[in-house]
Amino acid sequence: MCGIVGYIGHREAYPIVIKGLKRLEYRGYDSAGIVLYDGKDLKLSKTKGKVSDLEEKSSKEISTNGTIGMGHTRWATHGVPNDVNSHPHLSNSGNLAIIHNGIIENYEPLKKELINRGYTFKSDTDTEVLVNLIEDVQKKDNLKLGKAVQIALNQVIGAYAICVFDKQKPDEIVVARLGSPLAIGIGKDEFFIASDATPFIEYTSNAIYLEDEEMAIVRLHKPLKIRKIKDDSLVDPYIQELQMNLEQIEKGGYDHFMMKEIYEQPNVIKDTYRGRLHANEGLIRMAGIEDNIDKFTNAKRIVIIACGTSWHAGLVAEYIFEEFARIPVEVEYASEFRYRNPIINKDDVIIAISQSGETADTLAAIKLAKENGAFVFGVCNVVGSSISRETHAGAYTHAGPEIGVASTKAFTTQITVLTMIALRLAKAKGTLSNSDFHRYLQELEIIPEKVAEALKTNDKAKEIAAVFKDATNFLYLGRGYNFPVALEGALKLKEISYIHAEGYPAAEMKHGPIALIDEQMPVVVIAPKQGHYDKVVSNIQEIKSRSGKIIAIVTKGDTQVRDLADYVIEIPDAADAMSPLLTTIPLQLLSYHIAVMRECNVDQPRNLAKSVTVE
Ligand code: M6R
């Protein structure tokens, strides 16, 4: 959570930092701030609210065309979101400025000690403690900033990506990371620092991603040196060429990123399987799987770890892996897995799923699994992310940047990757007949066209949204492959429209949730023809006899459910195992329209952030 941006070079820093913060706003948006160096002094402006609020405030408060600057967009951890708690924070002398993404867990004892030594604090943040700790270390032995940062960080417990600037030495920014991402863009006589590469893609395509426990002194006219924070040893910098372009991170004519990303799904699903799925040749080729095929085929069990929407994709994968490859699968919330002393065996394969590749709980769960000797495979979207580097092998989803906080295309591309893996393993283990294997390859190949067809339900979804936009509760029901889709549909609705929604396996309804059903309760039932259709029809009858309002997602041409439901949305026919890729589309659209009609901030829902880098 939190986005950080820094610039040091020959251009005016202010517009670069502000634009960068706007691109990183998905990471947190409850307050924002900027500090600029005007050649003599630090100019600071910060405010509760969004980057647009900061832009307005700072344009009145500071005017400098200084070429060094740092900015921050915050997702509050310590201290409420207000002006004072916003970053950047200055040290007591006013010489040092810091921006920080992460949490300093031992900030309280450090703060007490600093107070005893005469330091005072304006904010409630852990970050202000860190900048004063650095200043204290620096003053004690008259150290250079880099050394002082290093010594201070060795006293700190927690997670951080930081940029520190000292106005007494205004040709450098010191950066460091542990647990929170930090990228350095390398231009000609200029450097960009950011939580991800989006703030600087129009300036340079060369970037270095710091690894955990690394720091760098980003100094003008000097080659970048990266060191280990613990022992000061030098690390060879690995410069990556960025694959991203500007168009990918702009709205492209849509009102919201979420809608753009929903509509990108036919194309990005193709991107996901391009070069991997060869339906005509009857082949699936994925480097990460081929290199480790024995580990997968010999696995006694697969454990999937993830959070949120990625966890839902994991649940869909559980059904697919067990059916296709006959390997037992368990799906765990990463946050539970990491703290419950799980049994991890050497012949377990762990699959970690994460769009951002930065989710703190998933990252910690991966480390735990590795320590216990398991082989860990990552399914990530963000190239070069922490999880993609921490795992033994992996497969990218190639969905392109997902900026809307509500995950949409990440979900369907994760399912696509996982389906391909399951099919490849089924082939290796001989658990699917040849004809079924070929049929599924062909089905998957034409899924993008069907997703495009499913997107035509937009008007219908909007019409239904207008009817139910003021509902206070929603129930989502599905069975088999579409049970996780029910969970995902409910999550989508609650996170962007703030309507309480619950997903349930349809048959579980009678074990409790049925008590909720009355004429006020909209119930979204996912009832494609290929699933446990008859059983779901019985569940619909049960809802109907209790006067619930039924919104059914059905296969095109369905008549039976149409007679029972209040509203139907038709999607194309598909194999049961592929149906989540289609049934999820109208649910994404429905929640989008409800949120828009309720005037909610669709792309940046309250209290949330795109990348959850704190536990
Ligand atoms: O980046 P990750 O896939 O690891 O993120 C996991 C969850 O935080 C994420 O899916 C979250 O639930 C989304 N906001 C849901 O739309």
UniProtKB/TrEMBL annotation:
Task: Report the main location listed first in the record.
Answer: cytoplasm
Annotated ranges, domain Glutamine amidotransferase type-2: 2-221
Kindly give the CDD domains that the UniProt entry links to this protein.
Answer: GFAT, SIS_GlmS_GlmD_1, SIS_GlmS_GlmD_2
Q: A GO CC term?
A: cytosol
Q: Which PROSITE patterns match?
A: GATASE_TYPE_2, SIS
Q: Where in the cell is it found?
A: Cytoplasm
Q: Keywords of this protein's UniProt record, alphabetized?
A: Aminotransferase, Cytoplasm, Glutamine amidotransferase, Repeat, Transferase
Q: Which GO terms describe its molecular function?
A: carbohydrate derivative binding; glutamine-fructose-6-phosphate transaminase (isomerizing) activity
Q: Domain SIS, which positions?
A: 292-431, 464-605
The EC number(s) given in the record are 2.6.1.16
* SUPFAM superfamilies named in the record: N-terminal nucleophile aminohydrolases (Ntn hydrolases), SIS domain
A GO BP entry: UDP-N-acetylglucosamine metabolic process
* Domain of life according to the entry: Bacteria
Q: Which Pfam families match?
A: GATase_6 (PF13522), SIS (PF01380)
| Record's catalysed reaction(s) | D-fructose 6-phosphate + L-glutamine = D-glucosamine 6-phosphate + L-glutamate
Query: Which sites are catalytic?
Result: 2 (nucleophile), 610 (for fru-6p isomerization activity)
What this protein is reported to do is described as: Catalyzes the first step in hexosamine metabolism, converting fructose-6P into glucosamine-6P using glutamine as a nitrogen source.
Subunit structure as annotated in this protein's UniProt entry: Homodimer.
Q: Which HAMAP family match?
A: GlmS (MF_00164)
Protein name, as recorded: Glutamine--fructose-6-phosphate aminotransferase [isomerizing]
Instruction: Look up and give the organism this protein is from.
Output: Flavobacterium swingsii
